[in-house]
Structure formats: structure tokens, C-alpha cells
Amino acid sequence: MNANWYTDDMKTITTNLFSFRLFRENDDILYIDKTMYAYILAKETTKNFFFLSRPRRFGKSLFCSTLHSLFEGDEKLFKGLYIAEKTDYDFKPYPVLHFDFSGMDTRNIEEFLSAFRHLIKYEASRNNVMLDDATPAQMLDTLIKKLSDEKGPVVILIDEFDSPLTAMPKIADEIRQVLNPFYATVKKNSERIRFFFITGVVKLANLSLFSSLNNLTDISMLPEFAAGFGYTEEELKEYFGEEIDEYLEEHRCEQKEDFIRKIKDYYDGYRFSPDAEIYVYNPVSIGSFFNNRCRFRNYWNHTGVPAFAVSLARKCNLLELIDGESLFINEAAFYTFDISDITSTSLSRSSVIALLYYAGYLTFIDENSVDYPNTEVRISFMENLVSRYADGGVDKAFMGIWINGFRKACENGDEEAVRKHMEKYFNAFSYELGYGEKERFYHIIFHAVFIIAGLYANSEDRGLRGRSDEAVIAGEHIWVFELKVDRSVDEALKQIEEKGYGEKYAYTGKKIHRIGISFSSETRTIAQWKSLS
């Protein structure tokens, strides 16, 4: 952090540490206390098999590590935290088996089996048990029985259960054939298990992979866990308030309330329970924001979000997500989606929307609709989706340079530069995109580029006597566009004049640019561009 405003007594904010022990043994690292939620689960002794679905980088791994230390009875690590200070938890030790599937990215089923056996053997050796090679299910069965006979009931933690399936779609069927008996072994030994906790991105209710694990309690959408993963508004102010105060004191750029509101717009907005109006911030985005001197940047693309979800959205042509519309989703979609369907070429629209929710691109608006949680995710999704519509994809390094130039051209009021940037943008797209809903596609892709550039853009902007196709505010300049496909640009200009598009912005004192554009669906390019400015 910048030494001009970051003082030595502030705690280090880390975004890549997932060990509860290391957090607690290092007083210089900031830890946000989530042990209340660990206590809610750990106190259960009968309904003690749990599942949690959350997007990647929302604290699932750290929570698993917290449960690991808790069930090993390492009471000293919890001193000063909620579970030690405000509950009667007894910190009784149990043998713990902790499997993290997130690193099992292998090329074939043989490598997967080898890595899986190694994972089981490591947990066995950590608990002073020797195992012979066998199937993973047989090895787990032996391990559970030996540990429970010698030390009592076993705790099993499985993190990122779906990672091997999504990372290796070509061998997903073979992986499932290995995992099915593995999970059946867990159910078979349920009387020997004190606590079972499994996490993943995709919700597992009714999934074929877990057909034998019918005793799982899914806490993913329960209101009591809505704030358990990610940071609430109150936690942001409590744990990061000093950083905010120091930054504002040094820069004197705006009022604290306005600054927090801007942070909220960029990084807050995740609602994980339709039954609770509780919203949380992405913890990695927030940590990255403060570690980058409070710069409002798009950190979402650097958090390992699943790219396959965007590819599936491309196949289903979910253009509403670019057009700024929320999407309807029936609750049943969350209970019928199967992890096995990820490799399917014929996923239903509702399944793709559910998958985008699991991946963190969408969140609940109410119980029947979803939308982007915040500005950061909206820009990230549009950038990723638009790049997949382009011929052969778009180089991200080039895209970043192009976007910066485009934004500056808009903010400088340079009509010629904006035109050239827009021509290069549309030259990247495939012919197939002009087929069918021609005009709508062009309008949506046109709108997307302004959002990606971080500009305020309003599609179908209401004017005095009608709606312009696009209005954009860029610094001291306002851009009003009317688009036509396979029609004369003069028709667009006439409509701008007759409908008075842009006149409502006259009071602002900003320079208003009124632009007519005609697209050719045959060449997929801008055929004509004229200005009334």
C-alpha cells in the first residue's frame, strides 16, 4: 500500500491465504470473525451432514479450515472470537479428514485416480494411519473405520467438490464413476461420522452424483447463513473503517458517505437467500481494492471465476444480460440442475441462468428474479460475453488498451476517434450475429461497449418526445445515438431532430453530441456515421 496514507499499525489485508491457523497465529493479518456460523453447524449432533454452495473466492476454503481447527480442538486459536467468548462450545477434539479438490486438475482418469489416492493417503498419514492402494472408496472406508475404532467419530470436510468435473469436462463421466462410490461410502459410515461438510460452486440438491447422500442439509440459501460468506456493510465499516479514514484524510477527495456508497456500488450486492434482504461484498474484490490504494478497478476477472459459465450464456444467447434486464428464474431450476449437465450441449435457458448464479455472475433480486450484483461483475460479464461473440475471441491485453482509448475519446468529445474505435469494435463480430433479431443485437452490443468502458450509459433513453437508442455521459460530454440497420443514416438524423433527442440534457452545460449510425448486416460493419453536433 501507499506509505503516504497506509500506516504501520494497520493490519495486513490478504486475499490469498486460506489457513485459519495462519490467520490466527499472525497478529498482523486482518481476520473477519465468522465463527458464529461455525458454531451454528458444529453444535448439531444429529442433523450433522451439511452442504454449502457459494461462488469461488467467497471464503469457503477458509471456513473449511476454521472447522478443521475447531474439530481438532485447537481452542487457543479461537481466543477472543465469537465462538469462544459468547458460546458454550466445548472444543472436544475429533479426528479430521480434510479433502481439498480444487487442485486436482489432471489430464486423464489415471492421473486423477493417482492424485485422489495421494490425497486420501496424505490425510491418513496425518492421522497416523497406513493405507494400501485400492479404489478411493475402499481406502476411505478403511480409513474411517480405523480412525473411528481408535479415536472415536470422524469429521470429514470436502472443499470444492465440483472442481475436478468443471476443470476436466472431457473425462467428467469417468470422474463421476469414481466419486459416486466414494460418497456412497460416506453415507454407509454415517454412524461413525461426527460431522460432514462439503462445499462447491454448484448447488447439489437432487444431483445424481450425490444420490446416496440423501441425508445432507443444504444451507446454501438459508437466511441464517446469508451473511456467513462475504462481508456485510457493517463488517466493511468495522474492519476497514481505518483504511477508509486514512485514505480520505490523505486525498480529501470526497465525503465518507459518498465514498462508501461508491464502494457498495462496485463490490456489494450479493444476496444469497431470497428470504433475507442481506447483501454482502466479495471479500477478494474488497481486499484487492484496499491493497491497490482504493482504486476502483475490475478485480473480478482475476479471482478465478468459472469461464465455462459465460460460454454457456453465449450458447443460449442471453442478450438480456447486456441490455440491463433482470432475468426470471423459477425456484425449481436450482433443484433440478445437475452437475452432470455442465458438459451438455443442450442446456436449458433456466439451467444456464442457475449456473450463472452459482458462478457469482448473478444474484437474487427477489425470489423469482436475478441480476448482476454490482458494477464490477456487470462489466466483467459483458466483457467476457462480448469477447465470445467476436470472431475467434478478443485478446484481453488488446481489449484493455482499446477500451482505454475508447473511453478517453468519449471523455474528450472526439467524434472522429469514437467513430474509428467503434468501427474496429464491430469489425470483430461474426456474421451469424446479424441473423434473426438483427437490430436488437446491434443495439445490445453497442450498449455493452460503453458499460465495459466504465461510462454511464442508458439504453432506450427517454427524451421529450420519444426514446433515443443510447445516451452516454462521459465527463463534460453527452453522447446521444440513434441506430439503424440496413436503413439510411439520414433517417436516424431526422428522428433525432424530430423527437428532440438530447434536448433534456441542455441544462447540464455539457457538450451534446447527436450521432446517427447505420449498420450493414451484410458486411457486419458501420456503413454510415453522421453527426448533428
What does this structure look like?
With 533 residues, the protein is of the alpha/beta class. Helix content is 42%, strand content 14%. The protein contains 20 helices and 13 strands. α12 (307-316) crosses α16.
Mean model confidence by pLDDT: 86
Tell me the Rg in angstroms: 26 Å
> How many strands in all?
13
**Unreliable stretches, pLDDT < 50, 5 or more residues?**
1-8
Read across the widest sheet, the strand sequence of neighbours is: 2-3-4-1-5
Largest sheet: 5 strands, parallel
Note the beta-strand portion. 5-15%
Query: What portion of residues is helical?
Result: 40-55%
Shape: elongated
Cα-to-Cα separation, first versus last residue:
45 Å
**Category from helices, strands and their pairing:** alpha/beta
Number of DSSP helical runs: 20
Write the layout of secondary structure elements.
Elements: H1 20-25, H2 35-42, E1 49-53, H3 60-71, H4 82-85, E2 96-100, H5 109-126, H6 136-151, E3 154-159, H7 163-167, H8 172-188, E4 193-200, E5 217-218, H9 233-251, H10 256-267, H11 283-291, H12 307-316, H13 320-323, E6 327-328, H14 332-336, H15 349-359, E7 363-366, E8 369-371, H16 375-389, H17 396-412, H18 415-426, H19 438-452, E9 456-462, E10 467-474, E11 477-485, H20 489-499, E12 511-520, E13 525-531
Parallel strand pairs: 1-4, 1-5, 2-3, 3-4, 11-12
Antiparallel strand pairs: 6-8, 7-8, 9-10, 10-11, 12-13
